[in-house]
Amino acid sequence: MRALTWQGPNSLQVDTVPDPVLLNPQDVIIKVTLSSVCGSDLHLLGGYVPTMHPGDILGHEFLGEVVEVGAHVKTVVKGDRVITVSIIGCGECEHCVRQDFSCCDNSNPNPCVTETAYGQPCGGIIGYSHAFGGYAGSHATYIRVPYADTNLFKVPDGVTDEQAVFVSDAAPTGYFAADNAGIQPGDTVAVWGCGAVGQMAIASAYLLGAERVIAIDRLADRLALAESKGGAITLDYETTNIHQALLELTGGRGPDRCIDCVGMEAHGTEIDYAYDKAKQLMRLHTERGTVLRQAIRACRKGGTVSVVGVYGGLMDKFPMGAVMNKALTLRSGQQPGQRYANQLFTHIQEGRLDPSWMLTHPMDLEDSAQGYALFKEKGDQCLRAVFRP
């Protein structure tokens, strides 16, 4: 089969690789129909996640058709149109029983790396380095999915492929970000980052009762989408003092809920960005924390900061004093999309959510390396490049 492979930092190529096979009776093989890029893939592409091997297949947000079914699989059959939640749960450990699927004890067959780094092993993630299981990704003709009964969801009638593909990752990540923020009716919510996850966080904040959402980015096309598609108030951080603007918009209090949809490669205009970038390039720490610092500083006293932007390791100058003295709640995590997939499909079917407009650049898999270059450089107003094998 054909697949997009990582060859080294900022080096991708499409290769012919062996087809996947069933390894466990709970596996399925899926013929990929659509497979989307994701902002978190850029951390892999740039070499910020050190457990990538040349030849690893990228991709974790996808939709396809079931073509082979393991003997113990009960919920899908050949021919079903399905999405796969990108963060893998086993369905049986204590975390999965609590619906904290992204904290699964059993889905990562290489637990030692994250156990050493974080204190306990983390769950597996499709196409996301050997630290998170070494699973082959979805930018390929076929993909093996483990624990199929937990991680596969049939796409209901009335939901298009272009809508469904984002229920694999971007939509549940944005919904989880808003849900984790504890939004109450009437709240003002600030969202940093207007990529696909940020756009879904904006939409989800309104679904959960927010009165106003303020979206922060520097790209004019993404800010325009946040306003026209999401109904957000928009701020360009390159031309605006974000902290002052947020105070002015909230009567001096700060937003009730702040959501970080950016993560470890945040861009900024102030001195902390230059400091972070220099230390990151020298591998003296791993995170550029501009957005997280801004969110903590801006959030109202007693408010909540929700973090779904990916962080991998260590950050200097973390404002713990602000967290403690303002009585902030800090919540974070990889998305437990199994908790939300059917609910999101219902929102789509009933017209409350339509993520299909985020698919700005449909492309052939053979052109996927160029698609990533376009996505990384944010050229041609690319919000999401999506590949058809």
UniProtKB/TrEMBL annotation:
Keywords: Metal-binding, Zinc. Residues 8-308 form the Enoyl reductase (ER) domain. It comes from the Bacteria. Its cofactor is Zn(2+). Pfam families: ADH_N, ADH_zinc_N. CDD domains: FDH_like_1 (cd08283). The keyword Zinc applies. SMART domains: PKS_ER. Transmembrane segments: none annotated. The keyword Zinc applies. This is Glutathione-dependent formaldehyde dehydrogenase. It comes from Pseudomonas quercus.
